[in-house]
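Researcher: Quick test of sequence recovery. Tokens follow.
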């Protein structure tokens, strides 16, 4: 698991707090991270070893998998890029063997996730801020429409 800490975004933090709803702020951050992380998943799909196609199709961007979530820090927003275990648990094991190899069975590693992360992470970090601002604006507009509608009733 790779953890990236971003600092120097106090304006974004203030804008998220201004939404006055911690759950909405968290969902806004998750949407932005999912959008920004898509290039990592797309490259991993291109780099994944050829098989019946199951491996490539199982690479997803979504909410952090329960077992990998950071516990106890409510201020963190996490996104998962990897194999969707919901499709097939055996596929998850297969994916690990392809990524890291299996010396006992003389299977060489065929990395696809780590190279995708290494190549795309700088772009993700460059784009997550603007995407987050856009998502904050959309969330604020939705809240404003909802409040106006409630006043009109």
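Model:
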């Amino acid at each position: 698991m790779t953890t990236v800490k971003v600092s120097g975004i106090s304006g974004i933090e203030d804008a998220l707090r201004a939404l006055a709803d911690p759950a909405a702020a968290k969902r806004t951050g998750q949407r932005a991270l999912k959008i920004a992380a898509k290039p990592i998943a797309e490259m991993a799909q291109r780099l994944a070893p050829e098989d019946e196609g199951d491996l490539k199709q199982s690479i997803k961007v979504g909410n952090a998998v329960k077992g990998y979530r950071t516990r106890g820090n409510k201020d963190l927003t996490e996104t998962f890029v990897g194999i969707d275990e919901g499709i097939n648990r055996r596929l998850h094991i297969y994916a690990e063997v392809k990524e890291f190899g299996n010396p006992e069975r003389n299977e060489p590693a065929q990395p696809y996730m780590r190279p995708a992360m290494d190549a795309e992470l700088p772009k993700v970090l460059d784009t997550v801020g603007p995407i987050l601002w856009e998502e904050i604006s959309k969330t604020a507009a939705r809240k404003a429409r909802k409040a106006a509608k409630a006043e009109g009733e």
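The longest strand covers residues 59-63.
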